[in-house]
């Protein structure tokens, strides 16, 4: 349920998002690059040079003998995705057409350099047509791939045959990601970035086949280094490298680099895609990670160790020949920080994901109301509501530093308190310990921040709690990057769209500058300018008078 807040109604956000979509080109460009800025503007200072921890697998010992893994529990067999399933994915798909190329790694580490300047000029109807085509799902896209086949949807009754006929299927059709599914005799050689399929003798061909796969969810990123997937020819099969370890469970090869470093990308590019790709294995899967990031493994250990109960393998350094009954190379992804339930093995939704995350972090079950409601309820049942000082709803105020920061935090805090809230000012860094931080977020009724990656902490909120997004002047991705997700996860999605006067750009450039009088004209001039003005140069001075009326309404919804 979204708060009915007049000037901030999120339906206007939807309208904007749709309007945005109609300007296919703009949407196409903005979508990706704006997300890159979420990354660049937060992550630069955090790039770590720490050495990577080698996580040696002990799985070889534990599963010295091959035994067939049991399939994930059979859910009702669902049909393959067909062309009616993806209408709402067009906007997102549109952002990531395969024509996109990003610039080099240096740029990714430089806060002030655009990632993808070479596509700013990709305009015109040809491009729009292409987007629409890309948005169409392939009927045979192996989106539910391996898991579906296990679930019996393709004719067997659920008994899995890992050695079942089938060549490696590398599906390059999705605009966001490439993926390979290899069933049977699959061999992974980490130091060679190679995954081999050795076909059974009767199926061998004189020719092999080979793919180069970017093993993460944004296949257009130059940073993601390809993994080679090969079907061996008859001749090659005879001299295939011998297994040095055999494993009973499937493996998934994926990269941990790319745009990871800020939570929006950590979740959107890796953790949610990993959830989509592997959750149905119920932990019975091993991760072979390319470009492993020790900080990422540490920070998200709870999630990673739940999705896979086996040791994470630092694949770049792994010299063995690891043999699995099934290997997936790559991660599926449906949209920015999102899930399309129809394309997942068990119809997972974003709500499922939030509840899963809460579960993993041992936060209270969903039957618990928001902290404020819960406190009210307790006192009612205890009959001690004697009018003594009441617990207040608690609002976490994310205090960004750098760009898009609030320049009048003390005034905002005072307004929040005056409206009846307890306020908690937080500045989560990349190294924040999520085990603790998740509890703090869980204890809040409202998570407030300017459009930016820190709002990704909304996964730790309780059902019915509010995400209060302060939308900077000229920024129009509020719904797409956070609002839609908040709604899907049964959080209140509240947007406070600042007026021009609340932007420091107004003071700096005056009311007659086009960026104030006509932000759309800036958008039309391309991402570089849009980014420079609205994303990097702008800070926010909230008009607390105006803001107070919204706070009062929000307060009502929480009682
Ligand atoms: C699409 O789904 C509908 C309903 O499940 C089904 O009747 C139809 O055959 C499907 N179309 C394709 C092309 O799979
Ligand atoms: C964009 O493309 C048009 C036509 O291809 C070209 O004339 C124009 O110079 C390009 N603009 C930029 C900024 O590259
Ligand atoms: C989908 O199936 C059709 C025919 O069944 C085939 O021509 C096409 O190559 C397949 N596409 C993919 C991505 O497998
Ligand atoms: C499933 O199929 C296998 C082999 O086709 C057969 O042995 C088994 O009895 C079947 N199980 C059920 C429950 O139908
Ligand atoms: C890795 O590749 C190199 C060069 O192609 C090859 O000599 C070596 O045998 C490969 N390693 C394994 C384990 O196959
Ligand atoms: C993952 O977490 C769920 C609870 O959400 C738990 O039931 C399951 O056993 C965990 N799996 C692993 C592999 O730890
Ligand atoms: C997934 O959703 C589809 C369509 O909404 C439905 O037909 C199917 O039964 C669902 N599958 C599961 C496992 O819930
Ligand atoms: C409930 O009662 C306790 C003890 O009187 C008090 O500290 C707390 O603030 C009350 N909470 C609410 C929401 O009234
Ligand atoms: C917010 O952050 C700024 C700088 O990043 C800092 O100076 C200020 O003290 C912080 N405010 C609070 C209330 O923590
Ligand atoms: C703040 O907002 C109030 C109410 O909308 C308005 O009357 C006032 O002029 C604004 N103050 C400034 C400094 O813009």
TrEMBL record:
Its main location: Golgi. It comes from Aegilops tauschii subsp. strangulata (Goatgrass). This is Glycosyltransferase 61 catalytic domain-containing protein. Residues 379-467 form the Glycosyltransferase 61 catalytic domain. InterPro entries: Glyco_transf_61_cat, Glycosyltransferase_61. Residues 374-391 have a biased composition (Basic and acidic residues). GO terms for cellular component: Golgi membrane. The chain crosses the membrane at residues 24-42.
